[in-house]
Design goal:
Order of helices and strands: HH
Structural class: mainly alpha
Number of domains: 1
Number of helices: 2
Strand content: under 5%
Length: about 60
Amino acid sequence: MLKQGIYEEIINQKLKDELTSLYLNSYDIGKERLDVEEARKLLSSYISLVTMLGELKKEIIPRS
């Protein structure tokens, strides 16, 4: 298994901070183990979605 890098540490800490600030009774949050390949695919999909939404936002709300 690969050693956890700085980006993974930052992402994990940010997610942990965000999850602990939520009202847990309002959400269905669970944990499960992912294999490395599955984790790569999920992270890649998430980054693509966030990037696409950011680009869409820039088109809808132009800067002044």
